[in-house]
Structures are given as C-alpha cells and as structure tokens.
Design brief:
single chain, alpha/beta, 2,3-Dihydroxybiphenyl 1,2-Dioxygenase, domain 1, 4-stranded mixed sheet, Glyas_Bleomycin-R_OHBP_Dase, Glyoxalase_6, VOC family protein
C-alpha cells in the first residue's frame, strides 16, 4: 500500500497565502491556517479529516476569468450547503463575488483573488 498515494491537499496559487487562507477559514469554519515562516505557503486542515486546502504565493498571479477560454479557470471548488440563501449572504459578507446565479442547484462565486468556487445545494 505504500506505493499508492493518498489525496493530501488542493493547492491554490495566490498573491498572499495568509490572506486567502483567512477567507477560506472563515468560509469553511475551520481553524486558523498554518503559515510558513517565509509567508510563501499556508495550509488549512480539515477538522473532520480528509484533504487539506493549501495556498502558495505566486509572483505576478493572474486570476482566472470566468467564463473565458482566454484565461480559463483550470479547476474550482464545489462546496455543499443546506441553506443556499444563508450561505449566499455569508460568502458575500466575507468577500466573495457572485459570478453566476442562474442555476437553481448551484451558484458560482469568485474568492477575493478570483478563483471560482460553487455553492451547491445538497
């Protein structure tokens, strides 16, 4: 089994790892991030176990454009919610930007540096 990897983390590029980790900490209700001493990397640990969410500093970071093929999103996070309206108000309050609210079962947002994510009704 040692040769079979386990899923450890999703890492998002960004200009300020501690700041973006703070946004996702607030969004997910997790504990404070572990920030490397040089500020180049921050990690949020899922308190229920499972994969971590990490952030790495990238000089000259360019946010993905949604929807666009000129600067495609590459990947996005799907976050399950049981109360779409309450979750919608909460993510806007902590700094997300609504990108698309036309679907009924999910809504697309951008985090403070432009990474798209979805709130998905479950």
């Amino acid at each position: 089994m040692g040769a079979v990897p386990t899923f450890g983390a999703v890492a998002l590029d960004c200009p300020d790892p501690a700041a973006l980790a703070g946004f996702y900490r607030e969004l997910l209700g997790w504990e404070a991030a572990e920030v490397k001493h040089d500020g180049q990397w921050a990690t949020l640990t899922n308190p229920q176990g499972g994969a971590r969410l990490s952030f790495q500093r990238v000089e000259g970071f360019r946010a993905p454009a949604w929807p666009s093929q000129d600067s495609p999103q590459q990947a996005h996070l799907d976050l399950d919610v049981t109360d779409m309206e309450a979750a919608h108000e909460r993510v806007l309050k902590i700094g997300a930007k609504l990108l698309d609210d036309s679907p009924r079962t999910f809504r697309v947002y951008a985090d403070p540096v432009g990474h798209p994510f979805c709130l998905c009704a479950c």
